[in-house]
Amino acid sequence: MFAFVILAGLTLYGCEITAILRARKRRQIDLGVKYFVTAIALLVPVSALGAVLAWPHLPMTMLTAQLENVYGFLAFIGVVTFAIVGMLYKVVPFLVWYASYSKAIGRSKVPSLAELYSPALQSAGYWLFLAGLLLTSVAAAVGHEHCVRVGCVVLLASVVVFVVNIGKILTHLIRPRIQPLIFKPAHVANVSPI
Fold first, then answer.
1. Smallest Cα–Cα separation from 54: which of 67, 37, 38?
2. Which residues contact 142 (CB under 8 A, 6 or more apart)?
3. CB 177, CB 113: distance < 8 Å
4. Which pLDDT value is given to residue 179?
5. Considering only CA atoms, which of 171, 160, 158 is closest in space to residue 116?
6. Which tens digit of pLDDT belongs to each residue from 108-138?
7. Engineering a disulfide at 78: which of 74, 123, 142, 156 sits with its beta carbon 3.0 to 4.6 angstroms away?
8. Does residue 177 sit in helix, strand or coil?
């Protein structure tokens, strides 16, 4: 019964997130938000699996034990970690930009938030994480050890990409990229003296 109460709460939360996304001003979802939304979407298979595993008359078999592992893996690595990575991509650039460039606004040319990190690395990390998560989950469900290892290596690659990109952001704390403002002189009409 409590599993279904939790499912009802998650369903209401999903409806609220959907309403927020529909009401947004910018039509394009940036990758940081996409990480978070994907993590929230992963609550659907996690919740379904949790409801099945919470069934009181479910027999304890090897498959059931493997599905319990997948449930925990998807919940912690899929939902929690993916959401944290997405929010770090939103928060860390802002904090670094504020610390390095906020006082130079109007006096110097400063990079935008999007210029602090590599969108290509962010995208690569997203797809590597999803691929590693899917491969590891399916392999764990069917009990294929070699594929679990391969999936974990893909997940590790996504973590390395994330760390490199965060490192790229943090370099702006050490070496800010401030450039002088270039003022173009206003065009002065040639007026003949009287």
1. 67
2. 66
3. no
4. 75
5. 171
6. 788 888 888 999 999 999 999 999 999 999 9
7. 74
8. coil
